[in-house]
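I hope you will forgive my troubling you with a question about protein structure. The full record is reproduced below for your convenience:

——
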Amino acid sequence: MPVDARALTLHRPRTLKAALALLAAEPALTPIAGCTDVMVGLHFGTSERRQFIDLWPLDELRGITARSGRSSLGATRAAADGGLRIGALTTYTEIIASPMVRKRVPMLVAAAREVGGAQIQNRGTIGGNIANASPAGDTLPVLAAAGAWIVLRSASGERRVPFDEFYTGYRTSVRRRDELITAIEMPAIDGRQWWRKVGTRRAQAISKIMIAGVNGPAAGGRRRVRMAFGSVAPTVVLATGAAAVLARGGSVAEAQAALARELTPIDDVRSTGAYRQQVAANLLTEFWESTNG
């Protein structure tokens, strides 16, 4: 049964400073923007949230900008000093249309094209995809494979968290209730990028499994490889073991065996765990053959 709108509270601050002050005073508030998931939960009565803060008017959280400097795949914190900065309220449509994103992170454009239909792409935001914390979030494997950083801000200050340290479990993260995701910082990516989603149909489907990968140039006798999988565990999985096998020149079969040890897919209404394991192995092979060809 839909939630009675009269039971809901909505705040609409006009500045980021005002929004952060509200969250500091009322940490029970749930941030919303595109509402592509929140409205579904309210309609079906599955959401327990009743107090919201609408971030949609905050232009301070929009925009895609190039960052100075350059960093390589697999770099440490300094990686945040190059590449792109994407505001949390940037929509999928804006990502798809951005010449900078198309040039620098084409796998993010590919993922954005697979998020629902045009209406969802016009309203849904990359910050919302991250905050929602679903392991089936389409952009999340891309951010993991890219070595992105999440920028969090509260009334007391700002901090940056590596994407692969952001999630603590199923739909949980290190974001505090008084913090907002304000931006995503991505390093310059050196290497061939690849993204693929497998669902029940070719478009507008929740994923059974996803992969994003970067096959970087060799350095010191080893390639630089990053692979991330979605919908195969409570959180996105950065497959460091399988990537290490490929980086040192191991066989695809060895990498598949390492990958099987890193994934914990479950049976659910969309697929079985065994199917996801097999498809993950197939996608690893396809990624490696495609980016080496």
Summary: The chain has a mean pLDDT of 91. The domain at 60-186 is CATH 3.30.465.10 (Uridine Diphospho-n-acetylenolpyruvylglucosamine Reductase; domain 3).
